[in-house]
What does this fold into?
Amino acid sequence: MILPKDFYLQDTCTLAKSLLGTYLVHQSPEGRTVGKIVETEAYLSDDPASHAYQRQTQRNSVMFGPAGHAYIYLIYGMHYCVNVVTGLVGVGEAVLIRALEPMEGVDLMQLRRGQKPGKTLCNGPGKLVQAMGIKAGMNGISLTGEQLYILSADSFPEHNEVFTIVTTTRIGITKGTELPYRYYIANNPYVSFKVRKVSS
DNA sequence: GCTGGGATCGCCT
DNA sequence: GGCGATCCCAGCG
It folds into this structure.
């Protein structure tokens, strides 16, 4: 089942956790790729680390739009990251997708990633964008459309396992204070490298 | 196995 | 003009 618009109306931290175990799908011209979401981070409107903290600008405008759309931006001049927009229109909040477990189209992912080994295909926000073939021009598209969408956790019964959510501080943040807004599936080998555990 | 540095550019001040 | 929600590789131990 494709997650419907209503699903994205949960509060941002709850949604960040709810997205764990669901499946990001990109239907691209070269083929379909699917990855299980195993790591997320929440960015709230009152957080200095968020792009939307100061005010609405050209770059962050998608974050202020309706929930359930994709916010894609360039980081460090060379990598892109994908976010799921959350919150009401006019409120700039989002969930960053930080890591995927490759499920379908692994060969295509490897091709796009320059034949990197399986565990490093999608274990980082920039890596998964490259592996999934997500492009900057897709910024703002709806996640309830045909091209890029998220499937519920029970969409693949054979992979629908019970898991524990680990909560930690976020990665790479240089503004504001460290907040426990990073979530990942315990013991999943596809989570991005650094682990600074604060609770589970 | 870990650390540090370099690549590279659009956006905001 | 400065910098960032990153990634990769070289160098060292």
Remarks:
- The longest helix of chain A spans residues 125-132.
- Residues 54, 57-59, 73-74, 76-78 of chain A lie near DNA strand B (CB under 10 Å from a C1').
